[in-house]
Amino acid sequence: MDDKGFISIEYLFALFVILIITIPLLFLSQSTIESSLNMEDSVTHRAILDDVANSISQVNSNGEGYSKHIELPSDERYYEITVEKNKLTMEYDGKKGETLLSLSNVDAKYKLYSGRSYMISKNSDGKIVIT
Question: Of 2, 64, 79, 102, which sits 20 to 30 A from 30 (CA to CA)?
């Protein structure tokens, strides 16, 4: 047999083996990067949800007539927070996050939207009102 043809087949085989090893690694690294970006996004939205919950708890723990002004950040993604009697729910990009409100007396069901300002107050009946 001719040695030149045999060496070419060895190089082709080595190249094939290298491609088989590197292509799955590329897909793995891409999914890892996307996962870390999703985690960062989730942490940011979770922090917003916790800030709103803390603001409602502060107003609830103070006396009647106490109020607090909050401004929801407007990032590049739209989100919506639903305030119910005992929980907050945030929805964004088809994802959902919840946190519980302890001992709060929320007057009604409210929807809060990203990029807007709200006033959380405690009325004379002791109920939390969001305007």
Answer: 79
